[in-house]
Design a protein that fits this description.
Layout (H helix, E strand, L loop, with lengths): L20 E3 L5 E3 L3 E2 L2 E2 L4 H17 L6 H19 L6 E5 L5 E4 L3 H8 L10 H13 L1 H10 L4 H19 L5 H30 L4 H15 L3 H29 L29 H30 L4 H27 L13 H20 L5 H16 L5 H8 L3 H29 L15 H39 L6
Antiparallel strand pairs: 1-2, 3-4, 5-6
């Protein structure tokens, strides 16, 4: 079927991806895009004009995009869900020494620190797999979740309610876990599955409500975990040490129900569920675009180096002789800076600069170059040479802003490939999956790079030298990909212009 794109400028969704109820000329209201009784609708010039008029009339009856009470109500609800529900699996803590003296990173919060130092899981070297499952599900499972969201569009709200229920059940079940296997299945797999099921329907709805300001909206949404990171870990730590993990998990489940439950009815898409009685066709045309693979490579490289500073910065501080509270302060600094970075990069990705950029929007390629470049320079120049709290705080601020803002660019990376919300959601899930590669690979890579000896006079105080060099190199390589793409594109344009000159017989002087 030929894809017919809405040219009204409102919503900009392809009709094959989002069938809408059309009032066709026969006076019979039908769902879909292909036919109107008594004969198939031909896509001639007259038919296209009438089809666009139908879509324009539909959009006029819907709430406005990029603002208005409905759009902001959705974004506030999504922000709260992101802050509390996703925050349970999104906290990073520093390395914890195992029996061999070599640390390994944990990715699912302050619970692990308590588990590692208290029975019945004390000293268990496999605790990191719980956090890995919790975060890897909503990264690596993104393509599958996106397919289901697009295939069963009208069930998006049901996915959100189901996913949130599964996550809360996982926390309650984890509070009764007698052994590691049960804890892995509940707090890791079940909770992670619930987050995955509810995460991508929210992304799909966000794409409907926010079009020209989608980068800023995604920045606000993603910044929620940074905001909750300023207080959430400390509350959990107090509860754990005062009441233990069982009570803390049950209290967390009750709190999530009370805080996030009232937000769920506010999570509604802009288009009514009846707009998708026919299953939409999945558009994978972006696989034919070289720019998609450029974006993918820079995203993978950035993801491979992203997690190490967040995980090892507190441990680096304590290795310098600073207190544990200083290490915790550095995490708060990074969370705060990450929030600023996501808001800032979201704003600049939407920014239109007239008479400067050809498309009147700051090219996302520039932002994709600046983010990993500054991050890499900060890692190699500030972190690797840090000998006190001042340089570490400075590094945390710079790295948090520029590295943390990268994820927000996924929205504009998708719309650069296609303005279709359907295709933008699919590409976003691809980039999320690529970030998951870095998330999962962090553990085994760090185990191979981290050394046991601390030498304060050496670069990276000796023990973290390889971590610093590896993480910085990944960031700079990510920036280099965008430089290579720019050089290649200019070369292709130059060759094309030379060819046009030769065809006209002008030659080159």
């Amino acid at each position: 079927m030929t894809a017919v794109t809405n040219t009204t400028g409102v919503g900009q969704f392809p009709l094959q991806s989002r069938p809408v109820p059309l009032q066709l000329h026969s006076g019979v209201r039908r769902h879909g895009t292909a036919a109107a009784p008594p004969s198939p609708l031909s896509f001639g010039e007259t038919s296209l004009q009438s089809l666009d008029k139908d879509v324009e009339n539909l959009d006029k009856r819907l709430p406005p995009i990029d603002g208005g009470p409905a759009a902001w109500r959705f974004l506030v609800a999504a922000f709260i869900i992101e802050a509390f529900m996703f925050g349970m699996v999104n906290y990073k803590i520093p390395q914890i020494a195992n029996a061999d003296g070599i640390g390994f990173p944990l990715n699912y919060g302050v619970f692990q620190n308590y588990y590692f130092t208290h029975p019945p899981f004390e000293g268990n070297p496999n605790l990191s797999t719980i956090g890995t499952f919790g975060t890897a599900f909503y990264f690596l499972g993104a393509p599958i979740a996106t397919y289901l969201v697009r295939r069963y569009y009208r069930w998006q709200r049901a996915f959100i309610w189901t996913g949130s229920s599964i996550s809360i059940i996982g926390l309650v079940a984890a509070s009764f876990a007698p052994d590691f296997g049960t804890l892995l299945a509940t707090q890791g797999i079940i909770y992670g599955m619930g987050v995955l099921i509810m995460y991508y329907p929210i992304f799909s709805m966000l794409n409907e409500w926010w079009v020209d300001r989608r980068g800023l909206a995604l920045g606000i949404f993603c910044a929620a975990t940074g905001v909750s990171g300023l207080f959430y870990p400390f509350v959990l730590e107090i509860l754990l040490h005062k009441y233990g993990p069982a009570t803390t998990l049950r209290v967390s489940a009750i709190a999530l129900t009370l805080v996030c439950g009232p937000m769920l009815p506010l999570l509604k898409g802009r288009y009514p569920a009846s707009c998708d009685e026919q299953a939409p066709e999945m558009d994978y045309s972006f696989f034919k675009m070289p720019l998609f693979y450029v974006f993918s490579l820079t995203a993978v490289l950035q993801g491979l180096g992203f997690y190490f500073p967040m995980i090892y910065l507190p441990s680096y501080a304590t290795s310098l002789g600073l207190s544990d509270s200083m290490g915790a302060l550095l995490l708060v600094v990074c969370s705060f800076a990450q929030t600023l970075g996501q808001l800032g990069f979201g704003y600049f990705s939407d920014l239109r600069v007239k008479r400067v950029w050809r498309d009147e929007r700051v090219p996302v390629e520039i932002l994709l170059f600046v983010s990993p470049l500054v991050s890499g320079v900060a890692i190699l120049g500030l972190w690797g040479m840090a000998s006190g709290i001042v340089m570490l705080v400075g590094f945390g601020l710079v790295y948090g802003v520029f590295a943390g803002g990268f994820v927000v660019l996924w929205a504009r990376m998708g719309t650069t490939l296609s303005p279709s919300p359907s295709l933008a959601l699919i590409t976003l899930s691809a980039f999320a999956c690529e970030r998951g590669v870095g998330n999962v690979a962090t553990g085994p890579i760090s185990a191979a790079l981290l050394t046991a000896d601390v030498e304060p006079a050496e670069y990276g105080i000796g023990r973290f030298k390889n971590i610093v060099l590896y993480s910085g190199a990944c960031m700079l390589a990510s920036a280099a990909v965008m430089v290579g793409w720019g050089v290649w594109r200019k070369g292709v344009r130059w060759v094309g212009r030379m060819g046009e000159v030769e065809e006209k017989g002008g030659g080159v002087r």
